[in-house]
Amino acid sequence: MAGRRTNLTLLVLTAVAFVSGALAYSAGTAWGRPVTVLHGVVGVGVVLVAPWKGLIVGHGMRRRGARAWASVVLALCTIASVVTGVLHTTGAAVHLGPVTAMQVHVGAALLALPLVIWHVAARPARLRRADLGRRELLRVGGLAGAALVAYVPTTLLGSDRRFTGSRQRGTDRPSAMPVTQWLDDDVPVVDTRAWRLRVGDRSLTYAELIARDDRVRALLDCTGGWYASQHWAGVWLEELLPAGGRSVVVRSLTGYSRRFPRSDAGRLLLATRVAGRPLSAGHGHPARLVAPGRRGFWWVKWLDSVDVDERPWWWQPPFPLT
User: Fold this and answer.
1) With b meaning 16 or more CB within 10 Å and e meaning fewer, what string describes 28-38?
2) Of 90, 265, 71, nearest to 166 (Cα)?
């Protein structure tokens, strides 16, 4: 495979990998399965093209010497992202010391992103008319077919996992669920006698909330690599909200927040209990959000306030920054 075509192929694969990876990371329901498969197949495609890219990198290293450090770092980030993606998908190694394989996978991809942009800007690979010819399309089709065939064994190795790669941990046993939180959050200690939940202009006590008994069975799929299905109880958020607004902002005592479409409020539960018992501190006591069909980072814990405003729900980073 010629150097220019190799670079073009890798550029397309990388772009699809980033987009599909972001979608797969946020997917919690069935629509995400084909996106996750696409992400995996593209990852295998990167591996299949790697030998040709290795020849190009080797030639560039001999020619540029120490100036090629950025390319070396990009290659290391790519290798780390691909390897940890396989470890997560197959379940071969969920944890790598204090971090998970998924955290390394995502972190390496994010580190690689600015280097990819720099690489494309410094050495652009321009598309030519011949690149859309029958011969090139057959080569692309062959690469896609080979990547798909090579991807199948990873799905068999991870057959006991959800399509997201998550493994079951603690279904119907809340105490067995891992205690996780986003990035720099810590588990707060809350005095329920003094705690109040502000919803718009209302201030609700713990006693008022725990007296409600709306129920839902929902599956929590954490991006850390585990999932669990539980019976949750509390009050539907829609019943507490004022009228109007385009979105609902749910905030934690830690400062963490997520914004939801106003139309979703009827499907969001403000939970105070799980499996018939009050939430533990690690799982959101005194109250947390249950967001069926969304990944775990949407399930805001240790609630502090809920507001309705006119901004659209997507007026926020796709993933929390802190």
Assistant:
1) beeebeebbbb
2) 90
- Whether the CB-CB separation of 160 and 167 falls below 8 Å is answered with yes
Flag residues of the chain having pLDDT under 70. Answer: 1-4, 28-30, 53-68, 125, 127-133, 155-159, 183, 322
Q: Give me the pLDDT at residue 164, please.
A: 80
For position 278, what pLDDT does the model report? 97
Q: Which domains does the chain have, with CATH numbers?
A: 3-165 (no CATH), 170-309 (3.90.420.10)
With contact defined as beta carbons under 8 Å apart, do 23 and 291 qualify? no
d(CA 260, CA 263): 8
Q: To 10 degrees, what angle do helices 134-157 and 69-90 make?
A: 50
CA distance 159 to 29: 17
Encoding tokens for residue 137? 């399309």
